[in-house]
Every structure is written in structure tokens, then in C-alpha cells.
Design brief:
single chain, mainly alpha, two-stranded antiparallel ribbon, 58% helix
Length: 184
């Protein structure tokens, strides 16, 4: 269905991942700014709770929907996530390039606070979703069931059967693109 507005036509029901990610980044930036202002007033545990409620919750929400968008979108969210973590880290933290100095590294703090990076969070949610599909396939809503091909490889299938299925899929959907099929 196409809706026309006075400004421009747009597709109803189409999902714009980059617009959603920009919105999430704006919300995270607002909350990270608040976290920096109150950093010296709160103990470490309270700052970590604020991080989980203000930053990590936005990163986690619907990550299966927008998580497989362009790498640039994910990387921009990752930099926002790191800025939020720097607001939790104790002491003075250089959180942007200043006088030629790099921002403080966050990898050790992700590990010490047991926080998943956005890339790991997307992978974890995708794996959990696949496990739920495999274990509770009969309980899936019809809209989700329709996205999974009826002849898709089953759990425990061989590599050959999966490769054959993929070859048939590519041949049926992309018959003009022969180099995909030759690669298999």
C-alpha cells in the first residue's frame, strides 16, 4: 500500500533501519550526557545500573530486526555504546579525541562488567531465536513460520544436504546469477 503525503510518497509498512538506529543513537546520546554530568555524584554500582537501563536496554531492544543492517549502522551504535561505558568507568576518562590523544579503551571494561558488545548481543539474540525455532517450532506464530522455507535443512542434517538445498534455492531465485551456483 502506498500512502501519499503532501511532501513525498512513502511506502506504508516499510521498515527503515537507519532511521530507527538514528533515533536510538539520539536517545543514547541524551542519556550518556546525563550520565557524564552525574558521574562524580554516584557510586560505581549505581552508574552501572544506569548504564544498563539507559544504554544497554536500547541496544538490546529488537536487535533481531535492525541488527543485520549495514555495518556502518552497527559500528555507530557500538561507538555510542562505548561512550556510555566510559561514563561508568571510574576516574578521569578521555571520551573523545582531544589534543591528539585517543579515547580510553573499553575492551577490558566490557569484560570486567560482563557487558556484551552490540555485535555479541546481536549474535546471542540470533542464536537464541534459532534455538527457540528449533525447539518450539510448533508454537511459532504463522507470520514467523512463513519466513522459514518448508524444505529448509533440518537440525542434524549433513553439509551436503544443506549445500544441495542452498544450490536449489539460489538456482530458483537467482537463475541469472550463475557465479553463485558455480561457487558451491
Amino acid at each position: 500500500m502506498v500512502l501519499k503525503s503532501a511532501a513525498r510518497p512513502r511506502q506504508y509498512g516499510s521498515y527503515k533501519g537507519s532511521k530507527h538506529i538514528k533515533t536510538v543513537k539520539a536517545k543514547m546520546a541524551r542519556y550518556v550526557g546525563i550520565m557524564y554530568k552525574i558521574k562524580n555524584l554516584l557510586p560505581q554500582k549505581a552508574r552501572l545500573q544506569l548504564y544498563h537501563s539507559f544504554v544497554q536496554s536500547h541496544v538490546n531492544f529488537c536487535s533481531l530486526v535492525w541488527g543485520f543492517s549495514a555495518k556502518s549502522n552497527i559500528e555507530s551504535l557500538f561507538s555510542s555504546q562505548k561512550k556510555g561505558l566510559r561514563a561508568v568507568m571510574p576516574g578521569f576518562v578521555n571520551y573523545f579525541y582531544k589534543d591528539g590523544l585517543l579515547p580510553s579503551h573499553t575492551k577490558a571494561h566490557f569484560n570486567s562488567y560482563k557487558i556484551l558488545t552490540i555485535q555479541n548481543l546481536i549474535a546471542k539474540n540470533a542464536i537464541l531465536f534459532m534455538q527457540k525455532v528449533r525447539s518450539f517450532g510448533n508454537l511459532l506464530p504463522p507470520s514467523v513460520k512463513e519466513t522459514i522455507a518448508s524444505n529448509a535443512p533440518e537440525w542434524g542434517g549433513s553439509h551436503e544436504s544443506s549445500a544441495d538445498w542452498l544450490k536449489k534455492l539460489l538456482h530458483s531465485q537467482f537463475s541469472r546469477i550463475h557465479y553463485f551456483i558455480k561457487a558451491l
